[in-house]
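Design job #97: recover the sequence.
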């Protein structure tokens, strides 16, 4: 029985190092670390990712799969839920770093199975909704700036980088304290980004971040 960490890494999200460090701080150790680099989480199915395919080939009954959050396991609600249920059918245990959730096939009680599946569905739907809302806010902010920005006063320079901004918006299920600890930002900055991601995106754009 082996423990796998699976990470999806792109230029706008957490690096592999960030995700490994976050998991290790939560008490996880790994036999294998598998990461897809430069793969869009919203356009490429889990099975179509190079390392995603490898993960499907490697996982066996009794193995544990660790992910930062369920959104790592698919491009949308359907893909995430299909992937998790497939792994559970294989006898794989899935654990999340954020909130330390565990999903497996240990129960045969139909009511408990229904509760588990409902929770998986809710988490996957929430992840997709958050991703869509964030991207829409970013697009709106950028379009507005392109149309109206005249090179005048840009406001205060952001105290966060593009990578830190992406970490905050992608850790939707985590507490403000956990996000602040992971990103190295102050709680006030995390609150400001979470409360108005469009304005945070605008500040980065104005300052060339």
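Job complete. Output follows.
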């Amino acid at each position: 029985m082996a423990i796998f960490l699976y990470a999806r890494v792109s230029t706008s999200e957490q690096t592999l190092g960030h995700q490994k460090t976050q998991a290790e701080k939560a008490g996880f150790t790994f036999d294998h670390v598998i990461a897809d680099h430069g793969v869009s989480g919203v356009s490429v199915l889990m099975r179509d990712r190079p390392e995603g395919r490898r993960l499907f080939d490697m996982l066996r009954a009794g193995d544990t799969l660790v992910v930062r959050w369920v959104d790592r396991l698919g491009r949308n609600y359907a893909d995430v839920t299909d992937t998790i249920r497939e792994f559970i059918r294989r006898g794989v245990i899935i654990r999340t770093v954020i909130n330390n959730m565990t999903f497996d096939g240990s129960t045969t009680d139909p009511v408990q199975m229904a509760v588990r599946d409902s929770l998986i569905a809710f988490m996957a739907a929430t992840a997709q909704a958050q991703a869509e809302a964030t991207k829409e806010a970013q697009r709106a902010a950028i379009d507005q700036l392109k149309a109206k920005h005249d090179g005048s006063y840009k406001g205060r320079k952001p105290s966060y980088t593009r990578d830190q901004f992406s970490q905050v918006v992608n850790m939707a299920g985590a507490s403000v304290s956990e996000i602040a600890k992971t990103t190295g930002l102050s709680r006030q900055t995390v609150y400001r980004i979470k409360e108005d991601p469009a304005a945070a995106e605008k500040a980065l754009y104005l300052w060339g971040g």
